[in-house]
Design the sequence.
């Protein structure tokens, strides 16, 4: 039932909303067989305005905001800034000039109101009624802080306004003066960099320093396989740099001047023969006659910035008793070769390779005794007596 507007008036009022562009249709009956109907296709003006950034420097030059309305509807557009109606009302497009120097720092609100007047036809060019749209903006009142960030696994960090400003300046644009300043707020190398916070028009709001730290250790991308040798040349293998390199190759990387078991720029060069089929060979190879036992390939996340890996390796040997050999597969000695990779920022990771030694089978299924050696290893021959144990 539709309520009567006043007792005995005989006037009934129905209120409701209609969808834009769809309108309404109404049928009413008095219960005595009388039916009335009414309908209309209605439109809203749907105003918008453009050109207003979220953040503006107090020192920015005057700029314009333009208000428009859908379907070029007839009517009058008016801008209202912080509750104050601005001069220049008129048909759309309506233009307003804002001078930031005349505004206080902080938040301001701009409203664009469009009065389409009374509708005279059912089309979107003459919608009738009043519609408003509003947006808040900020006249910058913030300072920039010096911050420290950690680069990710790709040696990058995106610096954003909410991380560096101590005020409501999240709408600003950050630009970092690092190796690639064209990347905006994207930091792509470790270091201490200057950054700036800018408004949408490119005006500087404030600046500061960002310290970007690389806390990602070098990644082991190809580990040397554990190997088992049937020989007694443990001492020959132990800490022998000529055994360093891709398995079965006879070239080893030249050691650094700082130590015979240190390799600079150790990530590897393009080549063949690595244990993982990655197309890598150790750097700065020199030829010899000793077959290699493997190489550990590490990759640093910040290599594109010139951050290289220094690789150090060292050996420790353990000899096993006869009782141990009964349960470990006949291994009488194991060299643990530790590979330690350190990048230019001091981050390090390591891997330990196992080089096992078993007694060589001489003949009739017998094995050589432990005290003596006499078998070829990697191109060398020791002419010594073999004791059959």
Sequence:
């Amino acid at each position: 039932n539709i309520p009567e507007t006043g007792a005995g008036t005989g006037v009934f009022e129905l209120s409701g909303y209609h969808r834009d562009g769809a309108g309404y249709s109404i049928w009413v009956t008095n219960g005595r067989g009388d039916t009335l109907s009414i309908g209309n296709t209605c439109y809203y003006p749907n105003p918008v305005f453009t050109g207003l950034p979220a953040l503006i420097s107090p020192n920015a030059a005057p700029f314009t905001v333009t208000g428009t309305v859908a379907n070029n509807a007839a009517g009058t557009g008016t801008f209202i800034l912080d509750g104050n109606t601005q001069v220049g009302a008129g048909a759309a497009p309506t233009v307003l000039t804002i001078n930031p120097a005349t505004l206080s720092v902080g938040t301001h609100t701009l409203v664009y109101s469009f009065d389409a007047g009374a509708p005279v036809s059912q089309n979107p060019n003459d919608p009738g009624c009043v519609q408003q749209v509003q947006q808040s903006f900020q006249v910058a009142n913030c300072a920039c802080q010096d911050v420290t960030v950690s680069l990710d696994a790709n040696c990058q960090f995106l610096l954003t306004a909410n991380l560096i400003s101590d005020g409501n300046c999240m709408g600003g644009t950050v630009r970092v003066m690092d190796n690639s300043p064209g990347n905006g707020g994207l930091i792509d190398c470790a270091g201490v960099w200057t950054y700036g916070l800018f408004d949408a028009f490119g005006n500087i709001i404030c600046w500061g320093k960002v310290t970007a730290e690389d806390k990602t250790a070098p990644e082991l991308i190809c580990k040397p396989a554990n190997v088992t040798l049937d020989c007694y040349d443990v001492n020959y293998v132990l800490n022998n740099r000529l055994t360093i390199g891709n398995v079965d190759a006879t070239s080893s990387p030249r050691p650094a001047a700082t130590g015979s078991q240190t390799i600079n720029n150790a990530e590897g060069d393009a080549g063949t023969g690595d244990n993982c089929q990655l197309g890598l060979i150790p750097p700065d190879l020199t030829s010899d006659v000793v077959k290699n036992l493997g190489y550990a390939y590490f990759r640093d996340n910040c290599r594109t910035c010139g951050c290289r890996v220094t690789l150090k390796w060292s050996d420790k040997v353990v000899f096993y008793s006869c009782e141990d050999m009964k349960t470990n597969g006949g291994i009488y000695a194991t060299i643990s070769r530790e590979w330690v990779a350190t990048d230019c920022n001091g981050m390090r990771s390591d891997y330990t390779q196992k080089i096992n030694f078993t007694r060589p089978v001489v003949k009739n299924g017998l094995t050589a005794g432990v005290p003596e050696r006499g078998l070829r290893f990697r191109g060398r021959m020791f002419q010594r007596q073999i004791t059959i144990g």
The first strand starts at residue 24 and ends at 29.
